Amino acid sequence: MTGLPTPTRAAPDDEAALIFLIEAAYRRYAQQGLVLPDMTSGLDAEIAAGRIWVTRGQGGLTGFLNLSAATPSAHLINVGVDPAMRGTGLGGTLIRFAIETARRAGCNRLCLATHPAMSGNLAMYRHLGWQVSSTSQSKVTLELLL
Q: Which stretches are transmembrane (predicted)?
């Protein structure tokens, strides 16, 4: 989809807006009763390390990803979009950006974990070529060979 923002590295002054965005992105899962880990702890260190990327719109942050691209395997730690941006292609844009960033860093695979009840996320990852590498009651691990 055209017209979607390009991810840029988050700055320290993005932290408060990023926390708000993460909470908004995962609110629907919490309302469904899913127990998820705290995804806002340690953001300051992740931002300082250059592992947080964000997209911006007129109203502020619209999406984010947390990517550790240390060879040989990169890890997509977290990705999400503003609920108002769901269905626009921004999530796919962020994931494709993570894939290209990992490739440029010399990684040969990209791994992630998600909750098995997040069926929409699992479908999107599979559509983008990810393969399930392990499952448990609370986690599905996927990988993409680069």
A: none
